[in-house]
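Email to the structure team, subject: Thioredoxin domain-containing protein model.

Hi all, the expression group asked for a predicted structure before they design truncation constructs. Nothing fancy, just the tokens so they can compare against earlier work. One-line instruction: predict Thioredoxin domain-containing protein, return tokens.
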Amino acid sequence: MDSIVSSSTILIRSYLTPPVRSCSSATSVSVKSVSSVQVTSVAANRHLLSLSSGGRGSKKFSSSAIRCGGIKEIGESEFSSTVLESDRPVLVEFVATWCGPCKLIYPAMEALSQEYGDKLTIVKIDHDANPKLIADFKVYGLPHFILFKDGKEVPGSRREGAITKAKLKEYIDGLLNSISVA
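Reply from the structure team: attached below.
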């Protein structure tokens, strides 16, 4: 019997049974009759899981079947309710699947999302799928960060480009201190 051990949140939606199963940090999920498991990262926050069961072939689950991490991807339709109407600060990260620097900082953003927990909500918005938001907020480079509090952009909160986890934490802490949330 093989086991999948998750270091972050993982959601598995089986194609055989309708319910969604959620496993939190450091949870071990046992998978019976599986001879090999392969997770291939195809883009930030999107993974492909292949399960092979000996000579019976393999079962592949698309990126919609498995989502890892705590950063929610939103679109134009959820922007108002998730960002503008939030009761806590929201850091919006504008990204694209083809953006190398976006992929580079993805692990740091995931870690910081868990670290800040209830103090800060972090969401990401796909550049290509949300042209109206890109135009409205004049996002010209990726990744691009904007902090919102009480439905408004926090002045001086814009940041563009990939930076280290330590610098990201310094940037976020400075913003939270400036709006008295830390």
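The radius of gyration is 18 Å. The longest helix spans residues 100-116. Ping us if the truncation boundaries need rechecking.
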